[in-house]
Amino acid sequence: MSEMGYVDAEERERKPSRRRRPARGSNRNLLIIGGAAVVVLIVVVVIAVVTMGGGDDKKGQAAAAARVTPKVYVNTPANSLVNKLNERSKDKRPLNKSEVFGDDAKSVSHGNYHFTLVGSQLSDCASVTWGQELQNDLRKYGCTQVARGAYVSQDKKYLGQFVAMNLEQLQGAEQIVRDLDPNSKAGFVSPLAAQGAENFGSGFSAAYSQSFGHYVVISWVERAGGAQPQTMNELLDASIAIERADDFVWERLVLAGG
């Protein structure tokens, strides 16, 4: 796991876990009630990552050429609340774009961070990722789809990318989460190019990933322009807003009998 940042101890102690955010909708409330609260905020260290610019093709396909990685990468242990989604055989229906980026995902917020969806795409796994090792593992573990959404904050100060990968089972999802660590040099997913978010990832960005059953969910954020924030809490809070696009996972869990 590659981590970077500079949050002091007092800030860390009073910061809630990014994965224990308030639920939206009655279905998720029923699922989360009774779950143990886990406070996870990790002290992060800065690493250097080589980035290369990407192209532009209908707002997204050529974004697959953008070989950029986050300067901060934090992965969280698999979410045990969605164990019934550990196997795709119990969740066979493919994702569709309107499901992942429906009305609830068009505007997402957390605290003072408010984002609007400016572009979305559902793709195969190879065309929007890069890195031989990552792509080999995506094939090995049965990746069939990658959903990507580009977000711009209402004040235009922050950009976000939401990514969901559809793997065959939890074991594969956990391996992909490890592959995505820039320290592994396995590769990464390319950001979706969209109006207002064309150069995402070229500066200082942070990505937070987790396995939700056979899905990998990534919330990737940066200041517009790529400037480094004063504390990592700034990007952490922004990432929680972007992560709210994961509602489709909880709806899938209901359908799976969770």
Give me the secondary-structure topology.
Layout: H1 9-14, H2 26-32, E1 72-76, H3 97-100, H4 103-106, E2 107-110, E3 113-123, E4 129-130, H5 132-140, E5 145-153, E6 158-166, H6 170-179, E7 188-189, E8 205-212, E9 215-223, H7 232-243, H8 247-255
Parallel strand pairs: 1-8
Antiparallel strand pairs: 2-3, 3-5, 4-7, 5-6, 6-9, 8-9
Helix pairs in contact: 5-6
Q: Could you characterize the architecture of this molecule?
A:
The protein is an alpha+beta fold. Helix content is 24%, strand content 23%. Strands 1-8-9-6-5-3-2 form a seven-stranded mixed beta sheet, with helices on both faces. Strand 8 (205-212) and strand 9 form a beta hairpin. The protein is built from eight helices and nine strands. The longest helix has 12 residues, at 232-243. The two termini are 30 Å apart.
Number of helices: 8
What is the H/E string? Answer: HHEHHEEEHEEHEEEHH
Given the helix and strand composition, which structural class is it? alpha+beta
CA-to-CA gap between the ends? 30 Å
Query: Spans with pLDDT under 50 lasting ≥5 residues?
Result: 3-64
Question: What is the beta-strand fraction?
Answer: 15-25%
Question: How are the strands of the biggest sheet laid out side by side?
Answer: 1-8-9-6-5-3-2
* Main β sheet profile: 7 strands, mixed
Helix content: 10-25%
